[in-house]
Amino acid sequence: MAINDKTLEDKLTKVRHQLHQHPELSNQEHQTTLFLNSYLETLGYHIVTPQKLLTGVIAEIGPSESNVIIGLRSDIDALPIAEKTGLNYASVNEGIMHACGHDFHMASLLGAAELLADQANKLTGRVRLIFQPAEEIHVGAQAVAEAGGIKNLNAIIGFHNKPDLKVNEIGILSGGLMAAVDQFKVTFRGQGTHAAMPQLGNDPIVALTSTVNTLQTVVSRKTDPQSPVVVSVTHIDGGSTWNVLPDVAWFEGTVRSFDLASRQLAREQFYQIVNGQAATFGLAVDISWIEGPNVVNNDSELTPIVIEETKQHAKLLTPKPSNAGEDFSYFSQKVPSVFAFIGSAGTTDWHHDDLIIDDRGLLPAARWYFYTANRLLAHFSGTTTNDR
Ligand SMILES: [Zn+2]
Ligand SMILES: [Zn+2]
Q: Which keywords does the record carry (predicted)?
């Protein structure tokens, strides 16, 4: 029996509030995992979570003899943020909040799970639901992949809620949707001395400020203006008082980019400038560079198919790519994928302690997973879609 939209929306709203109230940090999502497991078991899903995954759930539905499998992904972790929404379903876990809306993602995917279970005998292939841990620290997708969680998938889709999009608006584009993320820390080591006698030491602070300014030329003079890159120094530190020059000064920050060539070029230029500045000022320097997620890259063959399907059920937009990172990129490097932005009509942006998102966005998101899964099953199994 088909599920009534209103009934489903009410159910998903309750589910999201429950999840919102009990957020858990990356790789500690134990209660969330239990909740998802029991929900999916009740719907008749086959739980296939690899033993290696201590949190997160992977579950399948559809004809076991079919070789066509479409993956639907949601992340499940929350952030170390003290919630200030004042909602009656605000977090009861002190200092932890679903401030990125991963509760919204989970509830939507459970909604799709309901719709798929309802049509289970009509599915033309298998659908694998992937509730992935630890997105915020960018290690969960890789852990899922290494545990075998994306094995044999024909395609995988996912989305991030977008507070600045309205309910029922869905943004999809071919190519790079979310940025590659790099993180750096640079430490200059000189020799401290009395502030009044700089000639007796070797000042790391002047070298640091000169370097921070010169790094702005990476984007303005080196990388291709047609390919966006951001270099941000976000934190500097050195010294402890007004009349002493320190031994050490350091800064850290991040680089964002949308293609591999720009990513590599920005890194090379960064090293060249920092090492050059260290040589100019006669200082020792350490550069630590941490590669974060790659670009979330939407597959050029599948994206038009997903767009075509999405248009029939929601208001389609061409979104502005986001400079934020998303570890879904790990999946999109291995399996043809499409990632979307779905409207959650929020009061502010991701990672804010007062973000409130609109539950009316849940049903469109659940339906997007459901219809896209069916469309891609049809694409890969060479049949037409179910009547809807
Ligand atoms: Zn986030
Ligand atoms: Zn997020």
A: Amino-acid biosynthesis, Carboxypeptidase, Diaminopimelate biosynthesis, Hydrolase, Lysine biosynthesis, Manganese, Metal-binding, Protease
Residue ranges in the chain modelled with pLDDT below 50? 385-388
Res 383: pLDDT: 61
Q: Which ligand is nearest to the CA of 351?
A: 1
Q: Round the CA-based radius of gyration of the chain to a whole number and report it.
A: 24
Instruction: Note residues around ion ligand 2 (Cβ under 5 angstroms).
Output: 100
Neighbours of 194 (CB within 10 A): 11
Give the Cβ contact number of residue 352 at 10 Å.
Answer: 17
Across 198-344, where does the E strand assignment appear?
229-238, 244-245, 248-257, 284-291, 296-298, 315-317, 337-343
**Of 264, 273, 186, which is closest to residue 229 (Cα–Cα)?**
264
Give the count of beta carbons closer than 10 Å to the beta carbon of residue 36. Answer: 28
User: What is the per-residue pLDDT across 136-182, written as a single tens digit (0 to 9) for each?
Assistant: 999 999 999 999 999 999 999 999 999 999 999 999 999 999 999 99
Structure tokens at 303: 């994206």
Judge whether 252 is annotated as a binding position.
Answer: no
d(CA 373, CA 367): 10
- CA of 351 relative to ligand 1 center, distance in Å: 6
CA distances from 93 to 80, 104, 232, 356, 383 (A): 10, 18, 32, 17, 47
pLDDT in tens, 173-220: 999 999 999 999 999 999 999 999 999 999 999 999 999 999 999 999
Query: Is 100 labeled as ligand-binding?
Result: yes
Q: Which domains does the chain have, with CATH numbers?
A: 5-177+296-381 (3.40.630.10), 180-291 (3.30.70.360)
CA distance 195 to 240: 12
